[in-house]
Write a structure and sequence with these properties.
Layout (H helix, E strand, L loop, with lengths): L4 H22 L8 E4 L4 E3 H17 L5 E9 L5 E6 L10 E9 L1 H5 L5 E9 L12 E7 L6 E8 L3 E8 L3
Parallel strand pairs: 3-5
Antiparallel strand pairs: 1-2, 3-4, 5-6, 6-7, 7-8, 8-9
Amino acid sequence: MHEPPQTVIDRLREFQRAVRDVVIQSRKRPAMHAVSRHSAADTIYEIDTEVEPLLEDFCREWAKTTPLVLIAEGIETENGVEGVKTFPEGMPETEAEIRVLVDPIDGTRGIMYDKRAAWALAGVAPNTGRPGRLSDINIAVMTELPTSKMGLGDVLWATRGNGASGARIDLTN
């Protein structure tokens, strides 16, 4: 990967901050728990559909400097293949530099009913040409998606060989 690990962490944290903002704002809109569609991997709720465009825009922007393969539920290629998409769009997977595994809202059911926090999860691995495993991830970031009663939220990140770090974010500002 040609980007320094801290740059990758900063990118992922910024994306996850945007996801957290969408989740917080979604409380003001009714029916975020409504089913939007079913995919082969999961049920996609209205709250998920609010985040999917953010994820695709994030990947399009990142791909301007780093070609990537996105692996995420609910994402589809132009040909309807679910779960894996390349950026720039249409590029062969073999030309990607990295694989980005994302679950923008891990814990959708709990957070959409405001019952328990969820997490935005992301990991980055080199693109070795094979599907990859979680053990291939070199950089990971997770951001807590708070319930309405939470005034603080945690953000945690780690890079292989450099340990883990974290921050507690004041959500009342």
